[in-house]
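Quick one - inputs below.
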Amino acid sequence: MTEISIAILSTLGAVFIFLAAVGVVRMPDLYLRISVTTKAATLGIGLILIAAAFYFNDLSITSRVLAIILFMLLTAPVGAHMLGRASYFTGVKMWKNSEYDDLKGKYHPKTHVLSSEEEPDDVKKKV
Amino acid sequence: MLLSVLSGFLLAACLPVIGKQIKGNLSILLSALPVILFIYFLSFIPGVANGETYHFTYNWVPQLGINFDFHLDGLSLLFTLLITGIGSLVFIYTSAYLKGHVYLDRFYGYLAMFMSSMLGLVLSDNIITLFIFWELTSISSFFLIGFNNDSEASRKSSLLALGITGFGGLFLLAGMILLGYVTGSYSIVELMGQTELIHNHPYFVLILFLVFMGAFTKSAQFPFHFWLPGAMKAPTPVSTYLHSATMVKAGIYLLARFTPVLGNHEYWNTTLIIIGGVTMLYAAIHAVFRLDLKGILAYSTISALGVLVFLIGLGTDDALLAASVFILVHALYKATLFLVTGIIDHETGTRDVSQLSGLNKVMLPVGIAAILAAISNAGIPPSFGFLGKDLIYEATLHYGDWAIVLTVAAVLTNICLLFAGFLAGIKPFLGKLPQKYEKLHLPSPLMYVPPMILAGLGIVFGVLPMIIDSPLIKPVAAAILNTSPDFHLALWHGWSVVLLLSTITIGGGLGLYFILKPSEGLLAKATRFEPISPMSIILRCTRIFESTAKGVTNVLQNGYLRYYVISILTFLSVLLAYKIFKGIDLYVNFGKLTEITLYEAIVLAIMAVSIVFTVFTRSRLVAVAAMGIIGYSICLIFLFYSAPDLAMTQFSIDTLTVILFVLVLYNLPKYLKLSDTGSRVRDGMLALIFGGLISLLTLEVLNEPLEREISAYYAENAYTLAKGKNVVNVILVDFRGADTMVEIIVLSIAAIGVFSLLKLRLKSIEKE
Amino acid sequence: MSLYEYLYYIILPLLAISILIIFVRFLKGPTLSDRVVSLDLIITTGIGIIAIYSIHTNQPTFLDIAMILALIAFLGTVAFSYYLEKREKND
Amino acid sequence: MSNPYIILPIISQLFTAILLMFFWTQKNTQKAISVIMSLVTLGISVWLLTIVLKNGIHVTQAGSWEAPFGITFIADPLSSLMVLLTSLAGLAVSIFSVGSVRNARVRFGYFPIFHFLLMGLNGAFLTGDIFNLYVWFEIIIISSFVLITLGGEKAQIEGSIKYVTMNLLASAIFLTAIAILYGLVGSLNMADLSIKVANLENRGLVNVTAILFFVGFGIKSAVFPLHFWLPASYHTPPPAISAIFGGLLTKVGVYALLRVFTLIFVPDEFMINLISWVAGLTILTGCIGALIQNNIRKVFSYLIVGHIGYMIAGLGMFTEAALIGTVFYLIHDIIVKTNLFMVSGLIFKIKGTFSMRNLGGLYKEYPKLSLLMAIPIFSLVGIPPLSGFWAKLFWVESGFAIENFMLVAFIIAGSFLTLFVMAKLWAEVFWKDGDKLPKKINVKYFWELKPLKRTAMVFPIVFLSLISLYIGLGADHVIQLSTIIGKQLMDTTPYIEAVLGPINESQP
Amino acid sequence: MKTIIFKTASSYLLPLLLLFAIFILLRGHYLPGGGFVGGLIAAIAFVIHSFANGIEKTRGIIKFHPGFLMPIGLALALIAAIAPLFTGGALMTGLWFENPVPVIGMVGSALFFDIGVFLVVVGVTLTIIFTISETI
Amino acid sequence: MIKTKLLSNMLLAIIWVSLTGNFSAEGFVFGFLLSYILLWLISTSRRDDKYFTRGPKIIAFFFFFIYELVKANLQVAYDVMTPRYYMKPGIIRIPLTAKTDLEITLLANLITLTPGTLSLDVSDDKKVLYVHAMYVSDKEAFIHSIKNGFERKLLEILR
Amino acid sequence: MELLLVIIIGLLYAAGIYMMLRRSLVKLIIGLILLGNGANLLIFLLGRIVKGKPPIIDDASYVLAEIYADPVPQALILTAIVISFGLQAFAIILIKRAYKVVKTDDLDEMNATDEDL
Ligand code: NA
Ligand code: NA
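Output:
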């Protein structure tokens, strides 16, 4: 029983990670890559770690595994946000088929202040 | 005895302290030292005359058998008397000559130091101690020649003199050590007993060469003679004392001293005869063309030194006796002439012999001294010089097949020397006194009495040779010959070939004196040959050497770091390759290797690609990031192969390194200058060769069995004794805790370094 | 096929291949951000490898390395982002 | 003989450094602590050498783990001597620093790092473990990096880059050598290695490892052709730092070479030839380089290289006498080179430049100081009977004994070049008329300093000059000491037995 | 960096990571970890905090210059190392309390030594990173 | 204030206990003391944390979230593995109801972890969240789904 | 596996050397780091590698019984890594300082100290 759940969990985890890997290669722009990898990898690692927790079947190890997962859940999106934001600053382009860019022109180039103003409709346009 | 030798050093050491007090008229008091020493050494005459020798031993470095072993026999006694006697006169003379000079105290210091060194040199039985004093005379001479150190010419001459004599000195050192090695003793007395051993030793020629180099440079033999005329830049007392009477004779002393040890051998005799002969002729001819009084005297001194070497080279009893006498003869008249020159220079302000005449009218006592010295120099009876010259001809005439050639050479030399002596000693004083010198007057007696004493002795010894015959000269010859010779000095030997030769010499010299008038034109004719003189050749060689040195150093030390790295790695690679392919049996024991698994292979492949990527990417940041991947791959390898602690540490450190790089790189400019293909290929080859050698070496080491005594001990005791279960950590904090202690100190220092490197800004006053 | 063999011969290589694929993105770039993303993902995948390896070798201590990896991967991302913003500011 | 207190020279320097870090901003307190603790360390070092000479080799096993399992610290005559020399030079430079190091540098950790460096040196001398030696080397390297760059001036940075690179390269090679050595015999204790390496059958691998060690230490001791970093960097930091570098740092490399190539790898014929040639060429390049320099500190730097060649030559001859010579020269060289760099600092303070072209007139203006400075200058030349002379006796004689005329010739040539270089330096710096030379603005000249600072600059020069006079004139004592050490370098049994206990008969 | 998200996250990460760091430090003698890695994690915690909130704020939390941790840590390690000398033992000889302390296990000089390492590593890392961030 | 601290302290102690795996009384006391010291060390007077009072709720939300995460991944997986791209990405401006830093942060993180969305940044006046999304067929519907889905649920838990 | 590792080690050494021979100071430092990595791996490999048996005594026992990885090289590498980190950190900052005072990253322009000053 344990063995099967370990096998399933680890397989799922590995597959998610594999997907993330393929995603990071296949996705057409940086933001999509970040988007894909953050979750796929977090989920995949979570599953594999849980598999390990099952395997060792020890309270201290389980709690440690949970701590790692918690930590990843906390940091992965923050990291993604930081990298995405910094990339946008440095002018990393979005995919050509992207529909909207509400962020355009909202950053003050020198102070890095991000405004919340909604722009008039005529300015808002497709990328 | 030790005190008497070292007293000069003591005096020299005291002078910087008490110097201020004695600068005035008290300076003459310093002459007490050489006078006392002179008297002290005089007291040995009776004993030495009776064939006794004195030995004094003071321990210094008994470990090496290097001690103050002073040996006083005839030869050393003659020299000590010359040193202290002429020294006394020079000290006295100086007190007037340099009266009121700012640095008079220094001058006396150097003189005293020199005197002591010279005494040590001639008294040492220990050849190493002898060498030590030998070098000290060179150094004192360096300071004395450079005494007028504001003048560039002085500095150059002193460097040249030190260069040549120091150069020879080192050969002498090697020779002395070699003698000690061959015989097992540093004592000259003991060496005399081992003549046979030395003569038959394979190193004999080498020893001869080394000793000769020392003697020839010091005694200004051709082709090393040229430092001596330059040394005349020194104040006249120095020229008198060092460069005519004593120091330059150190080489002669050495040869005489070693005659019983090394002499009486074909190589010894031939070399000395040739070198001495060439020197005496070459320098004598040179002396003829000089205008500068000191120049004339310098060249005639060189020539005289040549004569001495020549005589020692002849090596017969006659010749050595002649040498013994001539040492004294020359010292007396040459010192006189120098002192006189000093007075002339001091009073008239010139040393140009063509400008000087008739000085007798204003300074008669000086003139008398000079003329007496010139007579002795010329070998005109009844001077002591006549006696000396006779003995020389006696020696050459009896030298077998070569007698005629040698005699002719000696006669020619003597003719020139006579001329030179007249030029220096008679020309300035006779004839018409130029108007500008009419107001001159006699200098202080302190200056003219010393030359008069010396010149007087030159005549007294000639008239009454018995005064010095058996008390002094005989023991000298005895020491050189290492036997007890039987002879008597006498002025008159009856009608003989020798007398004829003397007459020819005097006649020739006088003839020359009346024909040749010293002038610029004559000098110019002589200096035409300057470019091929040994001095020019050697100086040219020095310059070539120096520019080569510059070239080599600039090529080696070119400022390009990568060439430094290349040279190191090439050196290492060549050695490694040689040792690996020559000394190691290359094979791979596949049985010992572990299996290759897919995931590890992938990790390693990624690592390999990252390495290549790091190397070839154009962006520094990408290189840094790729370096991160290399680090992570290593981390995985550590993990797979049972090193969790390592994996953790590697990973954290690697990330930190990358972060540091990132923080530093953000404001660096784009790197554009790429090296050319050629150098890249060259560097690539070198890198691959080196990497390949390391790989090969690693493979070979892997074949060897590894002893696990130490890790087995750790495995056994980590928990039981050190109370830890993570053996690696136990090693870090306990078994090898000292390493870790040092490691955290390294980190702290690095942090301080980073802090100061980034924060410390020197104010402009603090920049250096 | 035992669980060990399954993990060792299927899952571990699968994860390794994932890393290889991600590495392709690292090499391709094109921007530094892309490389940072792939670096981060490589580390994350590394955590997976460590977890599987700890099962395979029955060494739970390896899981602690996973924790440190996660922590430091985050630091790396943060630092790069910091750098990207700073650099932009200075242009 | 076991004695846990032999590590006190290390501990006292470490303690000093830590204490100084607590007084980070108080410059005067730092100066006082540095000088006082240097004196204390000197006392400890004297005690150490005394007991070692009296009772034989002393050993302590860190952590009380018997050798070869823990880290051994061992005070044999050579290491105790090196510690003493370090303490002497350390005290001198510490005092000199009080007078010459700028307050800005003091406020940024000059003194702590200085004492860390001394600690590193003492550690390197006292350790009996090859990896621990590596670690001490790293302390030396990092602290010298910090010192050489302290102030961050352009020349300092440019010089330090070469210095840093070469030292890191040397470390990498050293580490590689240790890796291979461990891979071959599985031990790190030097005494243990001595036995185990001797028993190894694959001599080829042993020889290759020896090459790696030779090159690694060779870079550190700056032998040809591995020396280029030294003339590029030693003249760049402030004089006090140059002094400690010039006096001690390269000698650690020499020490390591002496240690490793007598204890672990007894040189075979190839190695002897290699070392001899390297030594000869080192003498030549160093002295030739010195001949053409105009910056006095560069002259001294090149002479360091040349004279390292002498010491290596002693190793290359590999006779007891030659090693005695090397040890003697080591003693002389540490004292004199330290002193010379301080002298250069003093000259700089007086004249505001290091360039011989712009120097002059020192003898006229400061006759007594000039005579003082003449002592180290002519000691370096080896004007007999000053300290540089004696070692040459041993080498020349050994050279003749083993018929290595090449080395004798190189040593003689080196001596001559040194003589000439220093005489030229004397003529230029001290004799030449200095009145017309340019004066710098923005430099605080010697006569403007407070008397205390002036004393602090002159006193250490007097101190070291007296020592070198003693080495030269009282050569007998120093030779006795060198002889003891030279004997022990050739016969390592006492060393090994002190660490591992009596060797039983079955082992060769 | 002015991001609310990061700032908020970092203030929760700090205590968590510090806790984790001490955990790693204390168990080093038994399992992978120890003073070095523990110290690194602690330092990283502060570094992350400083990235988010600025160095001044982080300084405010530490309350003194992080470089000061270096002499403290060194002194602690030194004392642990030379304590045996006072009883005539060799340098770094392990001194142990008789009984194990709850949670930590056996307490001896090695632990104090490791704590010294920990402090030094924190001090070093923070000094380096803070200095360089300040001078950017 | 004191209560908040106490709770944070307890929570940290619990985390300590689970980290060490030592669920004994001593372990807890030690963890408590340790975290007490830590909190004291890192405390600044300005701080006003409510995080720890919400501890249990957060753990509950955690499991809800796992579900969302899995769902999100399956959707993306499909797009990744199939040759054609079905996505219509863009950056959308979402006005925020959430007020505190903690609320905004959690919301942003959750959005990042859900299907095809990535929180890029929050405006400096904390009024607007900019989200990069993979599938924006209808912008208004998208904004609505976020506001009604995650934000509402989250605020329910937090407030 | 050793064969592959041997190749990687050689590659690391080669790459390190090659980078040291470039003109960029940054590359020089990277080269030194690569060299250090190579040396560390070399120690690791020459201590002989063992898979999956970390030298940690498990809960129940008092000694390391079965075949375990040699802990000594690991401890050495740990020390070496940390020390090199200190040196590298300093060297990296040196780049920054060098750029500030010499205004370039180009090593060929940093050779004034070899000229006669
Ligand atoms: Na550890
Ligand atoms: Na360590």
